[in-house]
Amino acid sequence: MEPSPQGSPQESPQGWPPPQQPHLPVPPAPYGMPGPPPPSANTNGLAIASLVTGIVCCVPPLGMVLGGIALGQIRKKGERGKGLAVTGMILSLVSTLLVVAGLATGAYREVYDGMRDAADEASRTRSTFDLRKGQCFNSPGGTIEAETPDVTIVDCATPHDGEITGSFALTQFDKWPGDKAIEPVAEKRCDVLNSAYAMDTWAIPDDAWIYYYQPSADSWRLGDRVVTCSFAAEKGKLTGSLRSDATTLDTHQVAFLKPVNLIDTVLLEEPEADAEDDLDANVRWAGKVSSTLSGTVAKLRAHPWPTAAERPLADLVEELEAAREHWAKAAAATDADVFWEHYDPAYDALPADMGAKARAALGLTRTPPEPSATT
């Protein structure tokens, strides 16, 4: 047998290869000091939570608490995440120191007040097409403008530019009709909405005018079809809500105003043409006035009024009935001369104050508006 090369292990006499030398085992770590975590070890959840809390600064001391608990669990369980926990604790410590400094100097109070004011301002800002009935608002610059995209909602008890009385959709148009087609529709419908919103018309100040926001060509393409109606100050500001409807009036006040207001409405429908030029239109109108007075009288007689209002209401009914007879004669006229013969007496027979004493007895405004007021 030839000798084995120098340094090579000798074979056994039987020809088997020499036994392999066993690897020495890695000595265990000292007692109480776990070795490095194996590659498959989980990352401690509290360490992650500590880092996140430290970054977002939601509760600054919490990050330090979570980080401390996480380090203890990592040592015992051999988990990963020591760096995350330490970083979270540091960030939380910095945040805590900043909070303490802010509270001590009052800086946070200033920031909070600024944020609160900004949030309040944003919450009160509305698109002119997102206003709701009963809201009072101010327009940018302090004047009502048709093209204003946004307004600010304010308390009606404070000075304001306008008060929303309602809205309606333009369902009669399939495509953009143009401003000139919308305006007469808006004026007529808003007049009705404003009258229903402020039934005590004598309480409407002289400088309150009917106003509305209507869709533009651009907003129409985006689906806007709503006209928003309001009372607006011609000059200066309005103060206090003008609302006087079933939500603010009692049953007796509503029972009085509904039929009596119809008289003013029908009188405003007088034809522009005189009886000489259009007798038929004037006769029809006189007949409508007579019919309205008859209906008003019937409703006033049928309602059970409070004792204090019974006498004033009876006097008003008597005056309205006398006026109705003149309007009925004007409605029966066959020529212009006969119509004019009853026209002036019919107007003169209408009570000048339209029941001021009855209004006072019912707790309504008893001073009529100036003739120039638009209501």
TrEMBL record:
Renumbered residue ranges of the record's region Disordered: 1-38
Q: Which residues cross the membrane?
A: 46-71, 83-108
Keyword list (alphabetical) reads:
Membrane, Transmembrane, Transmembrane helix
One Pfam family per UniProt? Septum_form
| Skewed-composition ranges (Low complexity) | 1-14
Q: Which residues form the Septum formation-related domain?
A: 132-229
Which protein, by its recorded name, is this?
A: DUF4190 domain-containing protein
Q: Which organism is it from?
A: Streptomyces ficellus
